[in-house]
Design a protein that fits this description.
about 30% helix; alpha/beta; 7-stranded mixed sheet
């Protein structure tokens, strides 16, 4: 801890990982009077090596590991916040315990089955593992954190072009979304669904060319298209129970929300004038009345619960997380961690 302005203290934090552009933006919005925070993108650090662009894939992996090791070596007193990058998690297993590290899961465990054994080993040694998904917290004994968001400037005046919109990866949701869109159109609403698909592009390697997925759209572009809808559609992927970013985007940018996440009714920001929850039958009864009603204002103190500073407060002061969901620990099934 170092001294900050106005007699406060500043926590030294290194956010180390492979962060999406929106995640990096969120971290950098931290209050500098309270948190001395740096974002380190592992792949960018590895690319600083002069031979990186000529190296085969296995050598590039070594350069990534060297970048991780250098970051830990140069910041011995910092709290490290990492995401679920396999190479970073494997590196953590080889480090002596205890150490100041928190793994902040950005995806549900159902989408990361290969990480179960590694996370189990880290968890058993006392590494803090946090998840936004209450179901994963209950099942694996993770610490719960609230999903978080920081608004980008200049995006509150996006003109409305259609009633309902969804922009995102398929993740098994496309058939349901297309059926939902057809039902919305039958009721006289306009809709737009956008599924950025896999790319047929390839990446050059020394041994040939390798297919790769299309890059995600820049977050500002994604938001500009998302916020063109009067009501955002939020459909959970299979195995997910926690909040996606869409409910928070609706909250922060003043849009209504149509969702199948029934747990959202327990969130402090829930208001029936702003959020329409689909029941098990996905009934749209009452939707016209919902869309015609004005939006309800949400207390800024509630909105602040979903900002990055609240998460960082929990990370630097574990007792601050007492207000989040209290989950009784449940161990993973025992699995051998491959060395």
């Amino acid at each position: 801890m170092t001294s900050g302005s106005a007699g406060t203290t500043t926590s030294r934090i290194i956010c180390l990982g492979v962060w999406a552009d929106y995640a990096e933006f969120f971290w950098k919005r931290a209050d500098p009077d309270r948190f001395d925070l740096s974002v380190v993108q592992v792949h960018q650090e590895a690319r600083r090596h002069p031979l990186y662009q000529f190296a085969p894939s296995f050598a590039r992996g070594l350069l990534h590991t060297l970048a991780i090791r250098r970051c830990f070596r140069d910041n011995p007193e910092a709290l490290f916040v990492v995401n679920e990058v396999p190479r970073i998690l494997k590196f953590l297993l080889d480090m002596p315990f205890p150490r100041k590290v928190a793994v902040v899961m950005r995806n549900p465990m159902a989408s990361k089955p290969k990480l179960h054994s590694t996370l189990n080993a880290l968890h058993s040694h006392g590494t803090r593992i946090l998840s936004f998904d209450p179901q994963d917290c209950s099942r694996y004994g993770f610490e719960h954190y609230r999903q978080y968001l920081e608004p980008l400037p200049g995006l509150h005046d996006i003109p409305i072009q259609h009633d309902f919109g969804f922009y995102g990866a398929d993740k098994g949701r496309r058939p349901f979304l297309e059926k939902l869109s057809a039902e919305l159109k039958d009721r006289g609403f306009s809709t737009r669904l956008h599924f950025p698909g896999d790319s047929r592009q390839t990446t050059r390697r020394w041994f040939g060319r390798k297919p790769r997925k299309a890059r995600n759209s820049p977050y500002a572009r994604y938001l500009a298209e998302t916020l063109a809808a009067r009501c955002l559609i939020d459909i959970l992927q299979p195995g997910q129970n926690g909040l996606t970013l869409r409910p928070l985007e609706a909250l922060f940018y003043g849009r209504k929300l149509l969702t199948n996440n029934r747990a959202i009714a327990e969130e402090p920001f829930f208001h029936p004038a702003n959020i329409f929850i689909l029941d098990e039958a996905a009934s749209l009864d009452g939707l016209e009345r919902f869309m015609a009603a004005p939006m309800a204002d949400i207390d800024p103190a509630i909105t602040a619960l979903y900002g990055v500073n609240r998460l960082l407060q929990q990370l630097t002061n574990p007792s601050a997380g007492a207000e989040t969901t209290a989950i009784a620990p449940a161990r993973f099934a025992k699995r051998r961690v491959k060395s």
